[in-house]
Amino acid sequence: AQAELVHTIGLPAGSEPALPDTLDALPATDPGDLALWLGSVARHHPAVAAAQAQVEAARARTEATRAEGMPTLDFNGSWYSNGYPNQGLSTMRTQVATMGLTLSIPLFEGWSRSYKLKGAQAQLAQAEAGLQQAQDQAALDVAKAHASTLAALAGLRHAEALLDAARAAHQSAGRRYERGVGDIAELLNTQGAYNEARQEHLRTLAEWHVGRLVLLAAAGVLGTLDARQAVAPPR
Questions:
Q1: For residue 75, what are the β-bridge partners?
Q2: What is the rounded distance in angstroms from the CA atom of residue 226 to the CA atom of residue 215?
């Protein structure tokens, strides 16, 4: 697992990444309301942001294509002193100013403008459909990850209760054995149950950490938040 981690994050082969000795330092908190996580998708998810940018670009192209078919009015002005360009200087001192307006009205272009506009509108519709698909997929991923995180949290809390009970039973059996009122079989049985409860607690704790990280990744905020913090809907 350590070698796979080194390969995944691109460290040199043989590196030993620094890992925490325990995962208990992070409090297992409720991930919060699903609606808050779904609301964060539109603000933070990179796939949704990329699809939104494509929609804006397609909308701008549509507006530009529509504007190309509209009449245009150009204004121009010139100022000449003592002659004109590419001509000799006048013997008389002259100053000439000219101004003009040019109105261009596209009358008939073989319907090419209409076809071009329809093509731009089709691209806009396609981009909007892509945005909707990206939003739906991101929302589905977040909903699945949120449910998995809740299930992992419930399993962890159950394992914690089981661990507390097994620890108490093992301690009680140890005291009974020290006072001579309990036998070695009872002590070993409670010790075995305690060890199994510890293993189950570690397994559910790992599932909780995986679940919360998957939820952060599904919401598109894993790279922007401190991975050590408890799961909370991003603002």
A1: 101
A2: 14
Q: What is the DSSP letter of 123?
A: H
Residue type, 205: L
For the chain, counts of helices (H) and of strands (E): 5, 2
For residue 72, what are the β-bridge partners? 104
**Six-digit token string for 29:** 């908190």
Cβ contact 221:212 at 8 Å: no
The torsion region of residue 82 among left (phi > 0), alpha (psi -120 to 50) and beta comes to: left
Question: Which residue in the block uniquely carries the two structure tokens 């938040």?
Answer: 225
**Are the C-beta atoms of residues 212 and 231 closer than 8 Å to each other?**
yes
- Which residues touch 29 (CB under 8 Å, ≥6 apart)? 230, 231, 232
In the beta sheet, which residues pair with residue 98?
Answer: 78
| pTM of the complete model | 0.69
Question: Does residue 185 contact residue 179 with C-beta atoms inside 8 Å?
Answer: no
E strand or H helix that includes residue 48: helix 46-68
- pLDDT tens, 118-142? 999 999 999 999 999 999 999 999 9
How far is the C-alpha of 84 from the C-alpha of 232, rounded, in Å? 74
* Confidence grade of residue 226 (pLDDT, cut at 50, 70, 90): low
